[in-house]
Amino acid sequence: MNITGNFIGGKICLSNSNQTQAIYDPATGKAVRELTQSTSAEVSDAIQVAHEAFTGWANTTPLRRARVLFNFKMLLEKHAEELAAIIVSEHGKVWSDALGELTRGTEVVEFACGIPHLIKGEYSSDVGSGVDSFSLMQPLGVVAGITPFNFPAMVPMWMFPIALACGNSFVLKPPALAPTAAVRLAELLKEAGLPDGVFNVVHCSNEDAEQLYTDPRIAAVSFVGSSGVAEHIYKTASAYGKRVQAFGAAKNHAIVMPDADLDATVNAIMGGAFGSAGERCMALPIVVAVGDETADKLIAQLTPRIEALRIGPGCMRRSEENEMGPVVSDAHQQKVLGYIEKGINEGAKLVVDGRRFTLPNYEAGYYVGGTLFDNVTPEMVIWREEIFGPVLGIVRAPDYASALELINSHEFGNGSAIFTSNGHAAREFVHDVQAGMVGVNVPVPVPMAFHSFGGWKRSVFGALNVHGPDGVRFYTRMKTATVRWPQGQQTVSEFSMPTLG
User: Fold this and answer.
1) CB atoms within 10 A of CB 125
2) What is the largest CA-CA distance in the chain?
3) Do residues 256 and 406 lie in contact, with contact meaning Cβ atoms separated by under 8 Å?
4) Which of 81, 121, 194, 455 fits as disulfide partner to 189, beta carbons 3.0 to 4.6 Å?
5) pTM higher than the cut 0.90
6) Which of 156, 225, 220, 140 is nearest to 188 (CA)?
7) Phi then psi for 376, rounded to 5 degrees?
8) Among 113, 166, 204, 281, the one annotated catalytic
9) Backbone phi, psi, residue 468, to 5°
10) What is the pLDDT along the chain (501 residues), one digit of tens a residue?
11) Angle 57-115-112 (CA atoms, 0-180°, nearest 5)?
């Protein structure tokens, strides 16, 4: 069986620990690869390799760094199907979704290719008599990324293309459930011309990963995962003097107004709730319907659509492609099924039950059928917590103000949407909803790469978001120079605050 190893110093290397763990295909429940487990010393070695590679890469001109990334972009496009096959085999998402993930990641690479423009800084002449002032945007050093299973390629590419373009070196810890895509990306970076040691991948336990946010050689860390871990990493890394962006859980909501285009809204909700089996931080697991009539109409249209979902392995393509694949693991399958049980026990009305879905010849796969609840209330666990599975809840609100208050009272504020044909209501919602990313008749409002991605409240810890302008700010630090070339002006010593006038 193939073994997924570390990528350190420009080459794949297996751990000296000789410890491996199985990587399973969620569609079949069968092991497809083994993952090498690094020791604490090997994680430290990867940091040292990145530390030693930093200076040379930081001193490489931004234009040359951009050319490496442009080569990388072309290689991503050339190897898209190979990478998609890896993602499908380890995560379980359907083929077009895996290709879509790669497209969104590649868009960040395209944005990073413009780094000579993005780090130009500022310049002001004559801020004083014969004095000019300008700023430099310089790299931080070694930066680290810790990424989740649900986007094995895209989430790392939210981070490292901009970090590398800005002149940093990088150490990535990918998820143990879906680690292989990250190693293949490392190989393609090397092929694109990235010097050895600038980008490294290590597989390790969560305990050994603490080095990535405590080691003094690490200048900054990016994390995507649960809110509890995000808060821990933010507090710990900040206490060690590091720059941190840590993204946590989400519970995204959509208000459906009585005037919404019902057919278009149902289509949007189906994709937002059940795309990638709901394993997205921007999934749409809660719909707040304004008025009982709106809720009844939604349920009437959603029920047969959810019951008819084509569920199966993600490897099928084109006309044979399924709409939804399995969830990522046996443990996660049991967790999602447990949430459905909690919803029933707490009094939500189970309209479509996905607990007993089975697929002939794939009985060992980690499948959960599409599930629909009605009469969900804020006291319920399925309202409060992120399920991360194909479970959609309908909440009934008497009016827009009540619906907005429900959403704004939630502890998470990652994304939110409204479905309406009323421009005034849409504008009010965009201004008043307490969420970092907002959609108007768009169920999954993920910003493009040239904008920044990030939520509010307990969905994010840290001041700067990923990619876009915030990504460039996060991976650089500004240095401002004030310059005078004297020709006899400094005739006396000055001990008061200089005004430069």
Assistant:
1) 9
2) 90
3) no
4) 194
5) yes
6) 156
7) -75, 140
8) 281
9) 60, -165
10) 799 999 999 999 999 888 899 999 999 999 999 999 999 999 999 999 999 999 999 999 999 999 999 999 999 999 999 999 999 999 999 999 999 999 999 999 999 999 999 999 999 999 988 899 999 999 999 999 999 999 999 999 999 999 999 999 999 999 999 999 999 999 999 999 999 999 999 999 999 999 999 999 999 999 999 999 999 999 999 999 999 999 999 999 999 999 999 999 999 999 999 999 999 999 999 999 999 999 999 999 999 999 999 999 999 999 999 999 999 999 999 999 999 999 999 999 999 999 989 999 999 999 999 999 999 999 999 999 999 999 999 999 999 999 999 999 999 999 999 999 999 999 999 999 999 999 999 999 999 999 999 999 999 999 999 999 999 999 999 999 999 987 766 666 777 777 776
11) 95
Q: Please list, in sequence order, all residues whose beta carbon lies within 8 angstroms of the beta carbon of residue 119, skipping any fewer than 6 positions away.
A: 62, 137, 166, 472, 476
Element holding 91 (H helix, E strand): helix 80-91
- Give the 3-state DSSP-derived string for 144-160, with helices as H, strands as E and coil as C: EEECCCCCCCHHHHHHH
Closest C-alpha to 153, from 99, 202, 107, 101? 101
Residue whose pair of structure tokens reads 């492609």 in the numeric block: 321
**Would you call 281 a catalytic residue per the annotation?**
yes
Q: What separation, in Å, do the N-terminal and C-terminal C-alpha atoms of the chain show?
A: 72
The answer to whether the beta carbons of residues 301 and 307 sit under 8 Å apart is no
User: DSSP 3-state helix, strand, coil percentages of the chain (rounded to 5)?
Assistant: 40, 25, 40
Spatial distance between the Cα atoms of 383 and 404, rounded to a whole number of angstroms: 15
> How many Å apart are CA 216 and CA 35, to the nearest integer?
28
CA 436 to chain centre: 14
Crossing angle for the helix pair 400-408 and 423-432, to the nearest 10 degrees: 20
Return the residue matching tokens 């380890």.
90
Which value, in Å, is the radius of gyration of the alpha carbons in the chain? 25
Q: Rounded to whole angstroms, what are the CA distances from 298 to 201, 264, 351, 368?
A: 46, 11, 12, 22
Distance CA 222, CA 111 (A): 18
